[in-house]
Request: fold
Amino acid sequence: MAAVDASSSPPAAITCRAAVAWGPGQPLVMEQVEVAPPGPMEIRVKVVCTSVCRSDVSAWQSKAQPDLFPRIFGHEASGVVESVGEGATEFQVGDHVLTVFIGECKSCKHCISGKSNMCQKLGLERRGVMHSDQKTRFSVKGKPVYHYCAVSSFSEYTVVHSGCAVKVGPTVPMDRVCLLSCGVSAGLGAAWNVANVSKGSSVAIFGLGTVGLSVAQGAKLRGVSKIIGIDTNPEKQEKGKAFGVTDFINPDELNEPVQQCDKNDVYRMFFSCLQIIKRITDGGADYSFECVGDTGVVSTALQSCSDGWGVTVTLGVPKAKPEVSAHYAFLLSGRTLKGSLFGGWRPKSDLPSLVDKYADKEIQVDGLVTHDIQFNDINKALDLMLENKCLRCVIHMTLLDN
Ligand SMILES: NC(=O)c1ccc[n+]([C@@H]2O[C@H](COP(=O)([O-])OP(=O)(O)OC[C@H]3O[C@@H](n4cnc5c(N)ncnc54)[C@H](O)[C@@H]3O)[C@@H](O)[C@H]2O)c1
Ligand SMILES: [Zn+2]
Ligand SMILES: [Zn+2]
Reply:
């Protein structure tokens, strides 16, 4: 447990437990880390729960940034404000908060545009440091430990910019609402804000993890009539139904004869999947969504949507090959390819209303939690993700009752 020096003011450093990744894909090691006090406009948060998102796992496995280790991952989290840095007057000690991986400063060009959540000051942080001073707030035995997305919630305490936290009411369950901090909001927002799906339309969703199922939920709530889920994991068929999926396709289990195909096996697999989507939707889905994290699937999603007005939204974060290739004719024929982070939501302005919808039972979150896991066992959650045997694992920082 954390040792806090309560007598000093301003707040002192805290020593607490954090799950540290010492190298790409290496099991996390529980370490005693020192967490610096919050700097100006920052808050220090006692993490209550953090769920594990596919983006954490992909970044942890990636060898692309070997210099950013040791590192503390985690970004989908709920917690309680433990101390407040100079000027962070929006928060008080004891406030319940959600952390967010893209912040909202409310003063930059994007924040005041009202049409973007790509804050220029607190946007997606990729260098493992804090936005304000490009330094870390964590250390192990004097050695700096890098952050992830300026959140790093796989730690009992973390420091975030006050623009990267959103207050929530004291009664919402912290062990479930943490999913609104990333995956669920990203999916709902992709359907509602980015694609703006319409009643009676058709959608094709590639990948039925938490993100894809949340797109399905968003589509269902808008009255979309055909919600086609495509996933290589057969277990996602039943899960999909619970979130509104009307038609399920497993590309690995297709018996459709491939009409014309001279490409590789993956292309063949998706080619016959495309035939089915086109048949179900009379020529192509009105909207398609890539929720896998594979740029090859982005091309397939674009091919699956309709000429003239089809919109493809890509949400996945690719593990490899970042370039998307698409025949220009798909664009000339009137299709649109776009993407979004965090479903286009501006966290401070928009997230509280989503939390209210959850509290009012207008949106489903609890059904996406497949495992509740103690912090000590966090590597189990990573294994479950790697084995594709979970939706969200919620990590509880304090001991669960057995
Ligand atoms: N844009 C954002 O704001 C945002 C937010 C959260 C997550 N993400 C990204 O979205 C993606 C999905 O996240 P998640 O947490 O739901 O992941 P997940 O791993 O839980 O779900 C991915 C699903 O895709 C399926 N799949 C894998 N390969 C497939 C293929 N070739 N064809 C069809 N289905 C396939 C898997 O079986 C799984 O059900 C990840 O890339 C993640 O990094 C983006
Ligand atoms: Zn901004
Ligand atoms: Zn995420």
User: Anything to note?
Assistant: Residues 53, 55, 75-76, 182-183 surround zinc ion (ligand 3) (CB under 6 Å). Confidence is low (pLDDT under 50) at residues 258-263. Residues 99 and 165 are 4 Å apart (CA to CA).
